[in-house]
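Problem 12. The chain below contains 242 residues. Write out its predicted structure in token notation.
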Amino acid sequence: MNREVTGRIHSIESFGSVDGPGIRYVLFLQGCPLKCLYCHNPDTWAFDDGKIVTAGEIVDDIATYRNFIEKGGVTISGGEPLLQQEFCAEVLDGCHELGLHTALDTSGIMPVEMVQDVLDKADLILLDIKSIDETMCETITGASNRNALATLRYREERGMDVWIRHVVVPGYTLDFEMLARMADYLKDFSCIKKVELLPFHKMGEYKWKELGRHYSLTDVPEPSEEDMKKAAELFDSRGIKL
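Solution.
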């Protein structure tokens, strides 16, 4: 690995339990081109914010937690980590030198041909598909879902593991016909090892206010347990593991 490659990071979680299998060191990178309506980390959006570090510094820090995360691994998240593909690639290489499992949490916003090297290095991709419907995806994020779906197809061709993440938002993605379309699309991908249906929450709303941004989902309720159960049943009926 090239230890001197630099990147901008937002924060580090040294004992993460929700961003991939097992206990994980989670590195949140700075910068994101999407503007998801429900984003709970809008403070990661700005490209010129965060702390500049070298890949070597991060891998050295990861090594100090090795005994705690050896049965889990390291997850690079964001923001959108693929915006800093060179930095990601070096950190992933360093993690593999330590014998650690790696995951990359991405929206798949970047064209595959631009980030192929990084996609190949990550043991697991946590792919956040915002919506199977392109128009809805643009409504939620300001961008198309085409690159995300291309990322999934690429990992399928390579036979490399993917976990799908999808946020269920009343009035937007809480649409059972749309969810059924998504389940039908995903059911034949052998690379998908897990699907996570994540209920919308407003825990990050205060960050929008602190940043002086308008939060448009203030009056949107969280999905009910019944709604989430029905959504899960749509995927389960198609043999998709949740």
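Discussion. Residues 85-97 form the longest helix (13 residues). Students who got a different answer should revisit the alignment rule from Section 12.3.
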